[in-house]
Amino acid sequence: MGDLSKLETALGAELLRAGLVPGRPSPSIGRYRVESFLGRGASGLVVAARDERLDRAVALKLSYTDASGGGALSEARALARLEHPNIVRVFDVDDVHVRLDGVAFRLRVLAMQRVGGGTLRAWVRERRRTPADIVEMFLQAGAGLAAAHACKIVHRDFKPDNVLIGEDGVPQVIDFGFAIPALSSRSSAAAPVAEVAGTDAYLAPEAREGRATAKSDQFAFAIALIEALTGAAAPPPRDPPPGVEERLWAVLRRASHPKAKRRYRDMNALLSALRATQPRGAGLGCVAVALVALGIFAWPHARAAYANHRCAPISGEWGFETVVERSSGAIPVGTRGQYTATLTHRSDCEFDVSLVHTGDTGPRGEHHYRRVARTDEPIAASFGLGGPVRLAVQLEDGRGYVLRFHSARRMSGQFTAPRYEGIIAPVSRFGAPAGHDARRR
Amino acid sequence: MTTTRDALLEQLIRDEWPRLRRFFHTKVPDSDVLDLVQATMLAFVDGRARATHGERAYLWGIARFQVLKFYDRQRPTTPFDSTVHTAMDVGRSLSSRLDGRNRLVRGLQALPTDHQIAFELRHGEGMSLEEVAAAIGVSLATVKRYLTAAREKLRRELSADADVVGAAYARL
Question: Rounded to whole angstroms, how far apart are CA atoms A321 and A424?
């Protein structure tokens, strides 16, 4: 703690000079110009900054490179490659030497997307929420954890303070793989008071012994959800509190079992079990989780025909296919979905799109329909999104077209989900979608 | 004139910023610390002529005022009583943002704000009883009463004596 205070003091002194003394610039760390403090965690300072090269607002997590809290650089880089709508995007990570207020520091600088809005903890307390709403929000945060686990990244410090609810209402997990596992046991009279970590409650027994695994994240996730439902971050008592269903409680009791092997196999299994406890209607949200795992491919002829245009004039009716690349469990990886899309030009590179789901093929060729309807239901509703969905379509050299969904609103009305992105490319690159006419009609 | 003012601000940053940082660190969210320190320093520089009880007491009196003003903004419908209310009372959003802090900070926050300030200035910053009284704007007897109450509560909550807690505060 003392060391971090040294960094905070030096950086703060520079920021104060910039604020109080005319003509003094804000301090720079590498290519970032620091603007203000955002917070201080167990392993680092978080500051608001601007990436001067890309003119982009970022949040920087600063930790000492020699501290165990800094995490391995390779792990940080793995995280930087991880893209998921429920994980705060890591742009870059690097080690830098910097001099602040006359003191030299060697820092690990983790540049992340700056998310507005508050924490999941604040969201839970903001107003009275139904268990279904709370579980729905946790399902999304859990999808972020599951995606990280798929990339062999264990969070090690999941708690409601490490989930930010963006201004669009989408929860995003922060602080992946960087927290120091708080190994100290609960405070005792002998323990120095300043060293007691504040997140003990979410630590699985094996994590306390320094053996944190993905199942420890599952434990922390369950305790955080129990806390959101009951107000107490503690192992659940046998009987559910008023207003919480027995079967939801049973899921949480299993996920927070002191013995790791008694918990669910993985986060996906836990999320599926949680999803099954959700009342009908609320469950649509889980499909929205799957949406982000879809990559949109296969747009025949378009690239050749419109290669000379920055934005393709693609109004009209089209067919295309989706392939599930990563899944939160609702839809198996490898599932192909067929759709027809009606695009209406809006302005510049933006189109309104109406998408109709016409079929699904599972990874072994079987037809696979779960929550996604096979009828003429618009895709927006299929994915738990209200329509119409707007797309921006831009040419991207050599790769095809980039589709960006935005202004997509969840059925529950809780938030918008603007960040879905996929690439469409000539069919030859991905193989023709089986049994579906993907030509422009 | 400006040069003198800038030099004074520079001196304040050098000498008082580390102390003001931990003072605000135990009372407001991290993201508000710098703003309140900046406001404290500007008010000090502009009103230094009014420092009738010594500059140190004047500076900490301003810092206390900034905290109370901040708390009042957080709970606009109920006037903040610094002898009764604690940082934990300020509102769910504030206290929730403070949850990540350690047990020491939470123990200090559980004290009524003026008790907390008296304890930190006396045992963390080593100020004299007279200076603490002037900073808070109360009598010597009242400061002693605040300190006794704070020490007892901290001993109960943190199982540690005042000098241990004060030293831990100074390392924040």
Answer: 9
Decide: residue A254, CB within 10 A, 0-12 exposed, 13-18 middle, 19+ buried. Answer: middle
Task: Output the CA angle A154-A157-A158, nearest 5 degrees.
Answer: 90
pLDDT tens, residue by residue, A2-42: 478 889 999 999 999 998 888 888 999 999 999 988 887 76
The ipTM is 0.79
Put simply, the answer to whether B97 touches A122 (Cβ < 8 Å) is yes
Check residue A46 and give its pLDDT. Answer: 87
Global pTM exceeds 0.90:
no
Q: What is the mean pLDDT of residues B31-52?
A: 88
Q: Judge whether B21 is closer than 8 Å to chain A, CB to CB.
A: yes
Tell the residue number behind the tokens 């047990």, with chain if given.
B103
d(C-alpha A302, C-alpha A391), whole Å:
16
- What's the residue count for chain B? 172
B2 pLDDT exceeds 80? Answer: no
Pick from A2, A126, A198: CB nearest B101: A198
Residue B168 and residue A161: Cβ atoms within 8 Å? Answer: no
**Does any CB of chain A come closer than 8 Å to the CB of residue B50?**
no
Q: Give the three-state DSSP class for A142.
A: helix
Cβ within 8 Å of A, B 87-146: 92-93, 96-97, 99-104, 106-107
A173: which DSSP letter? E
What is the DSSP code (8-state) at residue A241?
P
Report how far residue A327's alpha carbon sits from residue A331's, in angstroms, rounded to the nearest whole number: 6
Give the separation between CA B102 and CA B113, rounded to whole angstroms: 18
Render pLDDT for A247-294 as a digit per residue (tens, 0 to 9).
999 999 999 999 999 999 999 999 999 988 887 543 333 232 333 323
List own/partner pairs for B160-167 with CB under 8 A and 24 or more apart: B160/A189, B160/A193, B162/B119, B162/B123, B163/B123, B164/A193, B165/A193, B165/B104, B165/B107, B165/B108, B165/B119, B165/B123, B166/B119, B166/B120, B166/B122, B166/B123, B166/B124
A8–B21 CB contact, under 8 Å: yes
Peptide bond into A388 cis (omega under 30): yes
Summarize pLDDT for A343-378 with one digit per residue, the tens.
555 554 455 555 555 666 676 666 543 333 322 333
d(CA B29, CA B50): 30
Exposure b/e, A95-125, CB count within 10 A at least 16 = b: ebebebbeeebebbbbbbbbbeebbbbbbbb
Q: Annotated catalytic, A157?
A: yes
Residues 6 or more apart whose CB falls under 8 angstroms from that of A39 comprise: A45, A46, B29, B30, B31, B100
* CA dihedral of residues A320, A326, A330, A332 (deg, nearest 10): 80
- Which residues on B lie below 8 Å from A118 (Cβ)? 93, 97
